[in-house]
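Board notes (copied after class):
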Amino acid sequence: MLDGLNSGNSSFSSRGDGRQTPDHELAVHATPSAEGTRRGNQNRISDMEVMKERFARLLLGEDMSGGSEGVTSALALSNAITNLADSMFGEQMKLQPMYPETKEIWRKELNWLLSVVDHIVEFVPSKQMGKNGAFTEIMVTKQRDDLLMNIPALRKLDSVLLETLDNFKDQKDFWYVPRDVDDTDNSGDWRRDENWWLPVVKVPSDGLSDESRKLLHSQKDSVAQVLKAVTAINAVVLSEMHIPDNYIDSLPKNGKTSLGDFLYKNITDEYFDPDYFISYLDLSTEHKVLDLKNRIEASMVIWKRKMNQKEKDGKSQWGSSVSLEKRELFEVRAETILVMLKQQFPTIPQSSLEISKIRNNKDVGQAILESYSRVLENLASKILSRIDDVLEADLLVQRQLMAEAERRSESESGYEYQESENVVSAETPNSRKLSDFIGWRLSSETKKHSSMSDIEFFYRAEQEKPMMKSPKALPKKLSYLSKLENMRSTSERH
């Protein structure tokens, strides 16, 4: 470890900015080169001092007094990675790149903590050829398989998350406003009651551009894949950890008592639909979700132990009323519910079983894998939440624009309808009425009925026609009759 101070090649060391100056430049740059070398040596010395302090705390089990209150090395390493991530990503409240200094500290100190896995090895058989040409089987050391496979994968996923934040550098399509600022614009205040400590996202009045929207969706898909990967690694590591005896002692005697009558009846029912089961439960608060997770995990531990532990007569403590097939079916249902809870509530806190496993774990490799995957899982969830904030703010603006467009179209259609009504009313006085087609000409007596409609006037005129007297018409009718009489009379004469 101390050789890193001189060589600068150890994984425990941090390289400074000192450089070797060529001989032909010594005369010109003598002073700056010496200053840079001294600054580089000081940086390496300060990094070495910080590293010594970190590992001293780990060796003492976080008890710097040297007493007996220290924790195991596995738990100390787990806490160190967790605290480092909290100090680096705890203030990541915006979609923006990490500060270069913060990113450098994260990578440097994380390399210090992960350097421990290089010395967690296992013996594997190998063959070695001797001087006489004969092969001899020997045992050689190799890094443990789970560390050899998962540590490089977690490092790659870590880089993907940091690159995701770097992709939002110099973007201008959205910005953040502190919540204590009195802003009359309500376009980004959709989460004022929830997560009150986060700044408010603001987008332009016409929403995000197509390019920014496409970038957000692509980054969201990438981070979602990272979240699935780190969640799977964390779940596998936790499942391989030993269940502590103190947790087992705290469990009830049977799974029904742990679940309760309602949950036990639904899980052991003949017809079971996990989607309906989740939707039917009251999961409105984080406490209720965590309580359900604790109950299901406790019942699964009880069922597995009753299956594995045999009595002297060879019968399982589960009892003869439940068959092996049904017990396996119940376990599958419980595991399905846990997976759905993890997917629906990715930021749910650790359960009692998980906390107990981490606290009592003594495997340093598993502690590093679990803590590293857990902090990356939290970072991925945080980035997804920040992306959703921006997309939700853009969606609200789009809805407002659509509502304004609908109101504008309704007002325009109403205006056009009013214009058409005005045109019709303007053309009505010059249009021909029913009396024009019939051939009437209103006299002075009927002008007083001009306020009536044509139909009403026609109906009233027809009713009054027999009562009207025409002095010119009667003589004509009498003369015509007289002529007929005269014609009859003349015909009779002849």
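Comment from the instructor: The beta strands are 121-129, 135-143, 175-177, 200-202. The chain has a mean pLDDT of 76.
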